[in-house]
Design brief:
six-stranded mixed β-sheet, homodimer, alpha+beta, 26% helix, 291 residues
């Protein structure tokens, strides 16, 4: 592995296998061609036009769209989709940041509809006399996804209707027993984005990176069963583990590489410097068609 | 102005007005259609094929290309191009980072050939008891470009054949009298990229951002006539000056906005957060065609 290998591994999507779907004029996400033809096209909720699939315009409010799609998703669930991953947790479908939500969608269905998701990913670090250290959790061996892998200090999906910082404070308490007054000091410092494909599912995801400098005497503690254990590692050990192994959950590597860049651990004269920094933000909608 | 306005102002290029030019299989840059048809096409050095303009393949070494192009550029100079900006300073023409230079080109001609340029842009800051401060230089009123505007603490174009960090250390001495042992502590922490058009000229530039924490007792001092004066500003004053005015040279605003993001001065719940962070890196070659 190398840092660029992790970026390539996250950005494994072949967009030629996907078609856009729209709510009104707004692109809401992407459907795999086979899933669109075999499943979505037969739902009665979508019609195919030249540029992609269009949700029934009669569903003219977020509430109506959410309800109609939920009914459809429940029939899919009955047919074996989403397996044990159905969570009764709603994500927002919104085409661009800052625009109002177009509808909400059950979290486990989001990658089937190629809807952009994301959430806060926080690196909790300590400045010790002997250098920078990072609190590294190991995911619970009971988790349905990526059991036992290493993770970002605190991370979570972003439920509809909650602020990013608010969500992070909540996750800090649940996952690491970080009290709110400490968690509130976390700073949003970057964005990491990638296009990950798994079979017919697509994640065009955008993670918001937070840094939190923790006092030396504070020890995070697993609280909700999501985390098996926390260890404080010297940053160089994290650096080498990311660079050389796949021990971290795939997208958490990118958040840590972004941390290494921002904290000056890479050299500008490394020929991979620009490709790495560039590769951390493969974005959803290039501005004004440039690039 | 707003942060997004500065990003839009830097990314004002209409790429439909430009055609690619190639050295072998590699895209070396972009030519404005009118400049290509009226000037470059008549040089005898380029031939037009379906996908753009191709430099004479008989020029089969970097040295031959550099010499032939220099002779052509000198004839253009004789016809009034480049005005007082000709510098006898060579930039590298290289399609991707990490690949060898394909040729060198006089700096003042680079935007006429839409060749990616860049260089180190450093923010020199001080952590004082009363908060973060930034050393802000005002450009000399004698400079041919952007006289009297505010600038990044130290910044410079990247001459061919010099390392980025090496160049930064040199510029730190020349522009701000920062001694080498201090300048060497600067850390490469980000990349800012934009597509700026000025008439027939295109800058698809990539700046490498460095941070240097300076000791409170150090005062930068103009050394080579490029800088009129330095002032130490509280970060909030820099923040507001960037946000609300055009006092900084256009591309320096982006380096400072990147600094504000990395140092946690923006909120993740600002609806502009992702568009701003995304907008700071409009890149040359999207990886694997995604995005």
């Amino acid at each position: 592995m190398s840092f660029l290998d992790h970026i390539r591994r996250c950005n494994n999507a072949d967009l030629s296998q996907f078609e856009s779907w729209f709510i009104g004029q707004e692109r809401a996400g992407f459907l795999h061609r086979d899933f669109a033809a075999d499943v979505v096209g037969k739902s009665g909720l979508f019609t195919r036009r030249e540029n992609g699939w269009h949700l029934d315009p009669g569903l003219d409010t977020p509430a109506k769209r959410t309800a109609a799609m939920r009914a459809f998703l429940l029939t899919l669930r009955g047919r074996g989709y989403f397996k044990g991953l159905w969570r009764e947790e709603e994500y927002a479908v919104a085409p661009h940041d800052g625009t109002p939500m177009l509808m909400a969608m059950e979290r486990s269905a989001v990658p089937w509809f190629g809807v952009r998701a994301g959430g806060p990913h926080m690196t909790g670090f300590v400045r010790r006399a002997d250098g920078l250290h990072i609190w590294v959790p190991r995911r619970s061996y009971e988790k349905p996804t990526f059991p036992g892998q290493l993770d970002n200090t605190v991370a979570g999906g972003q439920p509809a209707g909650l602020g990013l910082h608010e969500n992070l404070v909540k996750e800090c308490g649940e996952e690491a027993s970080i009290p709110p007054q400490l968690a509130k000091q976390a700073k949003a410092v970057s964005v990491v984005a990638y296009w990950n494909q798994s079979g017919q599912q697509l994640k065009p995801d955008v993670m918001t990176c937070f840094d939190l400098e923790l006092p030396e005497e504070f020890t995070p503690r697993a609280n909700d069963g999501e985390v098996h254990s926390f260890e404080l590692w010297p940053v160089q050990r994290v650096f080498e583990t990311v660079r050389d192994t796949e021990e971290f959950k795939y997208n958490c590597n990118l958040v840590l590489i972004d941390f290494f860049v921002r904290h000056g651990l890479l050299s500008a004269d490394d020929p991979d410097f620009v490709p790495i920094v560039q590769g951390l933000r493969m974005m959803y909608t290039p501005m004004s068609g440039i690039g």
